[in-house]
Amino acid sequence: MRLKLDENLDVRLASLFRAEGFDVDTVHSEGLSGADDDLIYQTCRNSGRVLITLDLDFSNPFRFPPESTEGIVVVRPSRPILGVIQATLMSVLPQLKS
Question: How far apart are CA 36 and CA 61, in angstroms?
Answer without folding.
Answer: 17
